[in-house]
Design brief:
Layout (H helix, E strand, L loop, with lengths): L2 H13 L3 H13 L4 H21 L5 H20 L11 E7 L7 H12 L2 E5 L6 H10 L4 E5 L7 H12 L7 E5 L5 H7 L3 E2 L3 H11 L4
Parallel strand pairs: 1-2, 1-3, 3-4, 4-5
Helix pairs in contact: 1-2, 1-3, 2-4, 3-4, 5-9
Bound molecules: CO-5-methoxybenzimidazolylcobamide (B1M).
Length: 216
């Protein structure tokens, strides 16, 4: 099967909410030696974004969106296991990462987490719907170098600004670098709120994290 066919079928499985086929396809892509990251980003992720557009236009409804994200998660789980994780105790740095409070979108953050781990970065993934207070507590506890937040809703994006405010208010701003991501976040947004970095996708998140750690 060509990589283009894999991409096309991956998108279809998401749009058709066909979990069995998605799982079989993920396994086949790995068996045929394709790069799991590429299969996620140009195949399944593309499909879920198309689903999001249909949802945004009212052409599909929440139950279908939920089903398609379950399909996405099942496929990503298989591909994720094949992404080589950095086996080291000599970490290049530590990041605490979370999806912000009020936001349950965690598929993209999960991909970011996997890729960061492949680069020997120690990752504390706090999950989703996490308050800034908890994020900061964890960052202090593990002496993180970077705090990374993901926000997918325009309404929850503001939490990334509140995190910057909270760090400043508590005299902690210089203690951590911050990175923001998620579909509505942009470089402009990062500049506006004073975040140290913005990343559009998981690959860029790795590049930016290494830059923040002076490891490039
Ligand atoms: Co939601 N949802 N959703 N949803 N959902 C969006 C975000 C939406 C744009 C869809 C739409 O209307 N077109 C819309 C937001 C509109 C807005 O705010 N303007 C929306 C809505 C409205 C909602 C609900 C409110 C729907 C409702 O209940 N009526 C609800 C909100 C619940 C809540 O959070 N409180 C909701 C729920 C859900 C599901 C549960 C069904 C499901 C999430 C499942 C899950 O994550 N466990 C879901 C999904 C799947 C989506 C879409 C379709 C896809 C998101 C996704 O997984 N993308 C999304 C549409 C879209 O984004 N275009 C949508 C694939 C993923 C690989 O990409 O997450 O962007 P992404 O991550 C990328 C980059 O952004 C970046 O790297 C990742 C990998 O490349 N990145 C980072 C992400 N985090 C980063 C952090 C970094 C750096 C880079 O550094 C720290």
């Amino acid at each position: 099967m060509s990589i283009e066919d894999i991409f096309l079928e991956a998108r279809e499985t998401i749009l058709q909410c066909d979990q069995e086929r998605a799982v079989r396809l993920a396994e086949r892509a790995l068996a045929e030696g394709y790069d799991p990251v590429e299969v996620i980003s140009s195949g399944f992720s593309y499909g879920i974004r198309q689903m999001g557009e249909l949802f945004g236009r009212g052409e599909v409804f929440l139950p279908q969106l939920i089903m398609s994200s379950e399909v996405m998660k099942a496929a990503v789980q298989i591909l994720d296991a094949a992404i080589i994780q950095g086996e080291t105790t000599q970490y290049k740095g530590t990041i605490v990462i979370a999806t912000v409070e009020g936001d349950v979108h965690d598929i993209g953050k999960g991909i970011v987490v996997s890729l960061l781990k492949t680069q020997g970065i120690q990752v504390y993934d706090m999950g989703r719907d996490v308050s800034n207070v908890k994020i900061i507590e964890k960052a202090l506890e593990v002496k993180a170098d970077i705090i990374g937040t993901s926000a997918l809703l325009t309404t929850t994006l503001m939490s990334q600004k509140k995190l910057e405010d909270e760090l400043r208010k508590n005299g902690l701003r210089d203690q951590f670098k911050t990175m923001v991501g998620g579909a509505p976040a942009t470089q402009r947004w990062a500049d506006r709120i004073g975040a140290d970095a913005y990343a559009e996708d998981a690959a860029e998140a790795v590049t930016k994290a290494l830059l923040l750690l002076n490891r490039t």
